[in-house]
Amino acid sequence: MADMREPIETGCPDPFQYMHPVMRKNFGMWKYHEHPRPGVLKHVANSGDEIWTVRVGTQRILDVFTLRTLCDIGEKFADGYVHFTIRSNLEYMVTEESRVQPLIDAVEAAGFIVGGTQNSVTMISHTQGWLHCDIPGTDASGVVKSMMDELIDEFKQANMPNRVHITTSCCQINCGGQGDIAINVQHTKPPKINHDLVANVCERPSVVARCPVAAIRPAMVNGKPSLEVDEKKCICCGACFPPCPPMQINDAEHTKLAIWVGGNHSNARGKPTFQKLVAAGIPNNPPRWPEATAIVKRILKAYKEGARDWERINEWIERIGWPRFFEEVELPFTKYHIDNWRGARKSLNSSSYVRF
Amino acid sequence: MAIDKYPTPMLDQLETGPWPSFISGIKRLRDEHPDQRINEVTASLLGQLEHSYETRKGYWKGGTVSVFGYGGGIIPRFSEVGHAFPESKEFHTLRVQPPAGNHYSTAMLRQLADSWEKWGSGLVTFHGQTGNIMFIGTDTKRTQHFFDEINEYGWDLGGAGPCVRTAMSCVGAARCEMSCANEQKIHRLLVNNFTDDVHRPALPYKFKFKVSGCPNDCQNAIERADFAVLGTWRDDMKVDQEEVKAFIAKKGRQYIIDNVITRCPTNALSLNDDDTLAVNNQDCVRCMHCLNVMPKALHPGDDKGVTILIGGKRTLKIGDLMGTVVVPFKKLDTEEDYESLVELAEEIIDFWAENALEHERCGEMIERIGLVNFLEGIDVDVDPNMVSHPRECSYVRMDGWDDEAVKWFERQAEAS
User: Fold this and answer.
1) What secondary structure, in 3-state letters, does A134-168 show?
2) Which residues in B lie closer than 8 A to residue A33 (C-beta atoms)?
3) What pairs with residue B313 in β-bridges?
4) Orientation angle between helical segments B106-119 and B140-152, nearest 10 degrees
5) Contacts of B255 (CB under 8 A, 6+ apart)
6) What is the pLDDT of residue B1?
7) Is B383 exposed, middle or buried (0-12, 13-18, 19+ CB in 10 A)?
8) CATH class of the domain defined by B1-159
9) What is the pLDDT of residue B4?
10) Average pLDDT of the residues in A9-32
11) Are A225 and A90 part of one and the same domain?
12) For chain A, what percent of residues have pLDDT higher than 90?
């Protein structure tokens, strides 16, 4: 162990050493911002200093060639500093308006996309998928690439009623997070158990404890200690799969996609909201997942035409009502849309408010 | 020397279309990178990914990989189909903590890229959903070498497993006029107080800090963080009436009525006949909407601080939970103020570590034991800002009412 080196536990680095000098200088002293054009933000400080931000969409999973190309642009046109948004958009900052267009030209010439600001459909926040995750039902990167190919004009134009945050997730853990629209894996069949492996691979009590509906119990199968699933109780959530890979939940045919709408993290105009189920049974159809994209586009079209300025998707639906929403997006309303989880009664209509 | 390339007819279809393609990027590493090791690893990776696309299944399994001295921070990946795609049969990810607020110099990005292509696959993401830089793909031996190299110039691993996770904060005071807090200072003070709990997973489950500088909550802290810190203010919002008039002159009176006045969730705004804005600051809940619409005219007040919400998380296992207000307002002016913020976090993590079940998030524990038991456990007094409304159910034993009422009036007297 002579060559083993003790780690230096520095934790989260100080950002000031990597921050654009004008942002450092005016830290905490900004006055207002404007949105001069899609993909560009102008922030003005009390000192009169200006920062012009150009927001750039990329493929998110960057190879070092692409990363260096982004660095080249940053060094030639933007003082050598970048910032990343929570949705993995890259931002360049310049200090004068005259430097914005040459920067945009360089970004676009290199094949990247300028946009994603304010009332646009910004970059889809997503998870790892088949490329790297150990439990994925789909490949989020592929879904996102396919969708952004179709939604690119909405990324570039910023003419939605308000911002649209889309997320995708490759299992029901939903690492992609809440979104105005979320495209998430939904399993539809109980796990298939490889009883030969359970005893050696899984800590059985913790798998039993993990099940949200107590559908798993220890059992002897073919003379081996294993687990069994009460398939009538099972909600096919896949929670048992990460701690016990022999409980295979992913299935080429029965792992589907579901679409949820109305998740909104902001406190603006109303308290934050969670997303609601609108569509399920969508085929998990690589390499381009056209069925899921088609539904997302229908929802976006109805929202764009029907919502008022500043209404997020949840607020638009709140105003027009769910019956009209399902009508406008041409989706079926089924028994699966009615919640039966704890607290579900709060989601039922206990009034005479009925939409016609 | 030419390397074996696996056919990728399905992945090839992700190279068409106008959005930048991650497949094209991986192929560049396979075809153009000078290091044959990277050519081979990425060729093998593409082979396995194509296999996933064809069979609609994932083929990575977890395991146990860490660096010397730590227990977490690496996402180990071993291929179940390594016999068919051997060069990427070990393909671990290193989670590395970004600078607070995600600022980088291109010089530093280049240095990281140089280290990563020396030891890894050459694939990297800024950032994963927890907030880490994700260095995707290397084997067990090179995991240690890469970490040693970047650790020497200032980078440390993030959390993975049942531990304090990498924190996140918005761009905030660095560029945003809405910022009501020093997000980066809060972020670093909190998470760096728990480096031991980040690197050596020994908690019931994950614990996340997220900091947003204002109630717009661009970090999704209320929905996603066990410990959410949101900047806010408690005095009057600032109104520049000349800018209000200028806004109305430009956008029209109907626009401000339809998009500002009537959108206020507590009806705290009124438009005067002379096109100035009247604000009832006592009714205002600091939702940010009017400030978002009129960023030149309206600004947060001067008496800034933070609201702290505890217990946000996604579905597993009892369903989605948002954070709950536990500290309605806290000033963060002095070093003592910041110290007491860190002490609160310590108190909460200690109580949760003592009382949570295995794999139980902090919010789930609060759901199970009740908010009042949690508050008593961390020694925080009740406040009407913690609830949307008081209880509706009469099934509660209340023989301590008189004592509790006295406590309330004593606290009120102390505060005034």
Assistant:
1) CCCCCCHHHHHHHHHHHHHHHHHHCCCCCCECEEE
2) 176-177, 295
3) B321
4) 150
5) B248
6) 56
7) middle
8) alpha beta
9) 86
10) 98
11) no
12) 96
Question: Residue A332 has which token pair?
Answer: 């079926």
Query: Which residues of B fall within a CB distance of 8 Å from A212?
Result: 316-318
Q: What does the pLDDT read at residue A342?
A: 86
Count of C-beta atoms within a 10 Å radius of residue A48:
8
Distance CA B51, CA A330 (A): 35
**What is residue A4's predicted lDDT score, i.e. its pLDDT?**
87
CB contact under 8 A, B19 and A57: yes
Question: What is the distance of C-alpha B163 from the center of its chain?
Answer: 15
How far is Cα of residue A222 from the mean position of the Cα atoms in its chain?
A: 43
Q: Which domain holds residue A109?
A: 15-114
pLDDT in tens, A330-347: 999 999 999 999 889 999
Distance to chain A for B349, nearest Cα, Å: 18
Give the separation between CA A290 and CA A304, rounded to whole angstroms: 21
> What average pLDDT does chain A have?
96
**Is 0.90 topped by the overall pTM?**
yes
Q: Which CATH number fits domain B168-234+303-415: 3.40.50.970, 3.50.50.60, 3.30.413.10, 2.60.40.420?
A: 3.30.413.10
Taking CB atoms and an 8 Å limit, are A81 and B104 in contact across chains?
yes
A88 and B69 within 8 Å at the Cβ level: the answer is: no
Tell me the pLDDT tens digit for each residue of A193-232.
Answer: 999 999 999 999 999 999 999 999 999 999 999 999 999 9
The answer on pLDDT for A1 being more than 80 is no
Please name the amino acid found at residue B373.
N
Bond into B33 cis (ω within 30): no
Nearest-CB residue to A272 (from B55, B217, B286): B217
CB contact under 8 A, A61 and B187: no
Into which CATH architecture does domain B238-299 fall? 2-Layer Sandwich (3.30)
On the question of a cis peptide bond just before residue A42, with omega within 30 degrees of 0, the verdict is no
- A to B CB pairs, distance under 8 Å: 360
Phi, psi of A299 (to 5 degrees): -65, -45
Over chain B (416 residues), the average pLDDT of each successive run of 10 is: 88 98 98 98 98 97 94 96 97 98 98 98 96 97 97 97 97 98 98 98 97 98 97 98 98 97 98 98 98 98 98 90 98 98 98 96 97 98 97 96 97 93
At residue A97, the 3 state secondary structure works out as helix
Q: A104 and A55, same structural domain? A: yes
Q: Which two tokens stand for residue A340?
A: 């039966």
CB B26, CB A64: distance < 8 Å: no
Q: What is the pLDDT of residue B245?
A: 98
Residue of A nearest to B222 (CA): A265
The answer to whether A290 touches A280, Cβ cutoff 8 Å, is no
C-alpha B303/C-alpha B306 separation (Å) is 10
Identify the H or E element spanning A268. Answer: none
Per-residue tokens: B205:
């489950």
Residue A121 is assigned to a structural domain of this protein: no
- Strands B168-169 and B209-212, by their bridges, are parallel
Contacts of A245 (CB under 8 A, 6+ apart): A134, A197, A201, A202, B61
- For residue B56, give the nearest of A12, A132, A286 by CB distance: A286
Which two three-digit tokens encode residue B30? 């396979």
- Mean pLDDT of the region A315-324: 98
Please say if the pLDDT value at position A2 is more than 80: no
